[in-house]
Amino acid sequence: MTTVLDFRLHASGQDPAHFSQQMGAACRGLGLFHLTEHGIPARLLADVLDRSARFFALPEEEKARLDIRQSQANRGWAGPGVELRGGRYGRPMTKESYSIGLDLRSDDPRVRAGEPFRGSNLWPEDDLFRDVMRDYYKEMLGLGRGLMRAVERDLDLPQGFFQPHFTEPMATLRLSYYPADPWFAEAQGDDPPQFDYGALTLVLGDGRGGLQVQTSSGQWIDVPEVPGSLIVMVGDGLMRWSNDQYRAVPHRLRSPARPRHVAAFYLDPNPDSLIAPLPGTGAAQYAPIRAAEYLRARLDETYLPMAQSR
Q1: Global model pTM greater than 0.90
Q2: What is the Cα–Cα distance from 256 to 202, expressed in whole angstroms?
Q3: Residue 24: closest CA among 146, 152, 158, 201
Q4: How confident is the model at residue 87 (pLDDT cuts 50, 70, 90)?
Q5: Continuous segment of H or E residues that includes residue 134
Q6: CA 235 → CA 15, 180, 215, distances in Å?
Q7: Burial call 53-87: b when 16+ CB within 10 Å, e when fewer
C-alpha cells in the first residue's frame, strides 16, 4: 500500500518528472513513501544505529548532563517521561531521544545574537559518535534539499523556489530509543496520532518495524519494512505550504516487544522563513507564520518542563 521510489531517477536526471509525479501522488495520498537508492552509504547507516545504541546505554547521570530542557535550540537528551504523547497535557512517553541541529560554535555570531534555534550541540564525550552524526546530518540535509527540488517540480513551482528556505535550516536529527514494553503495546490502541512539524521527515529504522500510519478513512495500517530504504513522511509545514495539497501523515510507533532504535531527520526550514499557502492553490487554509514561531509552539507542547519533572 506504500509507494517505493528510486531516488536515482531524480538525482541522476534520468527521469525526474516521473519521480516527482510519483512522489507527489504519495504525498497527496498516504503522505508517506519509501525511498531507495538514496545514496547514503550503508556503512554510515549502520554506524548511526550502532553509535545511537551505545549512547543510550550510557549511565543516566552522564546523559542527564545533556538535558534538552537546558537548551533553547532544541538540542540534547530527553529522558524517559520528558516527551509527551498527545500534546501538553498528554501521557509521558517511555522513550528516550537525543537531538542534534546545525553544528554551530558557541561564538558563532548567530548564536551570540540569540537567533531562534541557533546554538551549539550538546555532545557526549565520544568523538566517534560526534563524527558519525555530523556526517549523517550533512548527508541527510543534502538528500532533503534534493527532495524539495522534486516537490517544486510536482507543485509547478519555479526551480529553486524552496532553496532560500533551506540554506541554514532548523533541521534536527533525532535519535530515539524505545525500550521493550510488551504490556504497553497492548494498551496503545487509543493513542492520539502524531504529526511532524516541518517539511519532510526522513526515517531510518533498525528493521524491527512498528510504524503505523492512519489512512484518510481513519484506518491504522502497518508500514512495511523495505530493506535499504528510508521512510519519508510529509510534515505539517509542507502541508501548510501546499495549502493541503499534500497530507501530513498521522502516525504512531507501536511500543516494541524488543528494544528499538530509530534515527529521524526533521527537515524544518530556516527560522525566518514564512510558511504561507502557495499562491494559486485556492482559499488559504492557514494563516502565514514564521517557521521558528511555529516550531517553538509545537515543541512547547512536546516536552515536559524541567520544573514539572522533579
Answers
A1: yes
A2: 21
A3: 152
A4: low
A5: helix 127-154
A6: 25, 27, 15
A7: eebbeeeeeebeebbbbebebbbbbbbeebbbbee
